[in-house]
Design brief:
It is a single chain. This protein is of the alpha/beta class. The protein is built from 12 helices and 13 strands. The protein has a domain of 239 residues: Rossmann fold (3-Layer(aba) Sandwich). The longest helix has 25 residues. The structure holds nicotinamide-adenine-dinucleotide (NAD) and thymidine-5'-diphospho-beta-D-xylose.
């Protein structure tokens, strides 16, 4: 197979490629990524020289380029990760979310349609669209999202992802494109950009910077180790039923504050700060995120029943691996933080502990 992976230099995309490229040497993986602030080729060092891997820098919004990639590489599968992915950024600047997530997805779908259905009449093709549980809106204290939950997106990010899901669905019903959609809960693990809750807290705790807690810290997310998500995508790509959506989750609900407290304890211990509660004292309650969804939780019965997938990594093990990875890769974090993101972060929250390039504040 010739598999086009979009957004493969981001967090989940790079974990996916690092897992799939060595495992499936008979398949070609073409990674198309625009290398926005969130894309980082450093994440792909272990596979960059592999014979079955090709990188193309470019945007999914570029129709001629997308058409060329489908023809040049005779693509027959797409795994579509490329997106603007951070909710806070969608609140301060929604336009690029519509541009990339909605319009970009439509451009990509159109190249797939032209190549697979019009030019080649290719029976064996698939467009796997990687989406989020946030399209379903917010849960109260009980209940779960499943494949039959009505869409009710609340943020510009989730609205843009919901729109892209609808377009993918429409290309199946209207044109007969073979598609699958996955709606996954919050991922964590190596290579996650340090603007998302877990890597931000780890990186700030190490640097003795504030740990910003939105609202009362009691919002709930269902956390899944990123490699488990990648394995679910692998299953859906090769064995999923055409036209179906699959909800993917960790069966692991945690309040934000529980995660932050856990991380504080782990980092105190690892850095020999125990007893001082240094990290605990960095916690800072800040103004809540606008429209902050209260709770997400996934019922992943369908993917377990149909494809035999379930999470393999429990939270204690996943979070230990994640903390170890970030502690061992502080240079990776610092390089990102010295760039565009740092400026945004300071402007957004005006937090203390400003760092000078290459130096820690300790
Ligand atoms: P990320 O922000 O880390 O990576 C996004 C990647 O897309 C980056 O490499 C970026 O350079 C690339 N990109 C952005 N705009 C592009 C464009 N126009 N053309 C080509 N490439 C472009 O995101 P992530 O956390 O890895 O998420 C990947 C996908 O999974 C997204 O679609 C997201 O909605 C979805 N998702 C994420 C989570 C999560 O917890 N992170 C959970 C469920 C679903
Ligand atoms: O500094 C912070 N303080 C804080 O309290 C940050 C960055 C987050 N939070 C809270 C907000 C959320 O309740 O932590 C929770 C998790 O926040 P994020 O890491 O921003 O994730 P979330 O908004 O839940 O969205 C994530 O999961 C679904 C991803 O960013 C999406 O791409 C994915 O679709």
């Amino acid at each position: 197979m010739k598999i086009l992976v979009t957004g493969g230099a981001g967090f989940i995309g790079s974990n996916f490629l690092n897992y799939m490229v060595p495992k499936y040497q008979q398949h070609l993986f073409v990674n198309l990524d625009a290398l926005t602030y969130a894309g980082n080729l450093e994440n792909l060092k272990s596979i960059e020289a592999a014979g079955n891997y090709v990188f193309v820098k470019g945007s999914i919004n570029d129709q001629p380029l997308m058409n060329k990639i489908f023809v040049d590489h005779q693509i027959d599968r797409v795994v579509h990760f490329a997106a603007e992915s951070h909710v806070d950024r969608s609140i301060t600047g929604p336009a690029v979310f519509v541009e990339t997530n909605v319009l970009g997805t439509q451009v990509l779908l159109d190249s797939a349609r032209q190549h697979w259905l019009e030019a080649k009449k290719l029976k064996n093709h698939r467009f796997l669209h990687v989406s989020t549980d946030e399209v379903f809106g917010s849960l109260g204290a009980t209940g779960y999202f499943s494949e039959t939950t009505p869409y009710a997106p609340n943020s510009p990010y989730s609205a843009s992802k919901a729109s892209s899901d609808m377009l993918v669905r429409a290309y199946h019903h209207t044109f007969g494109l073979d598609i699958c959609i996955t709606n996954c809960s919050n991922n964590y693990g190596p290579y996650q950009f340090p603007e998302k809750l877990i890597p931000l807290m780890i990186a700030n705790a190490i640097d003795r910077k504030d740990l910003p807690i939105y609202g009362d810290g009691k919002n709930v997310r269902d956390w899944l180790y990123v490699l488990d998500h990648c394995k679910a995508i692998e299953k859906v790509l090769f064995e999923g039923r055409s036209g179906e959506t699959y909800c993917i989750g960790g069966n692991n609900e945690q309040q934000n504050i529980q995660i932050i407290d856990l991380l504080c304890g782990m980092i105190d211990e690892k850095l020999g700060r125990s007893g001082e509660q240094v990290t605990e004292r960095l916690k800072k309650y800040v103004t809540d995120r606008k429209g902050h969804d209260k709770r997400y939780a996934i019922d992943a019965t369908k993917i377990k029943r149909e494809l035999g997938w379930e999470p393999e990594t429990n939270f204690a093990e996943g979070i230990r691996k994640t903390v170890d990875w970030y502690m061992g890769n502080q240079d990776w974090v610092n390089r990102l933080r010295d760039g565009v993101y740092q400026e945004y972060y300071e402007k957004q929250y005006g937090l203390v502990g400003k760092r000078v390039s290459g130096q820690t504040s300790e």
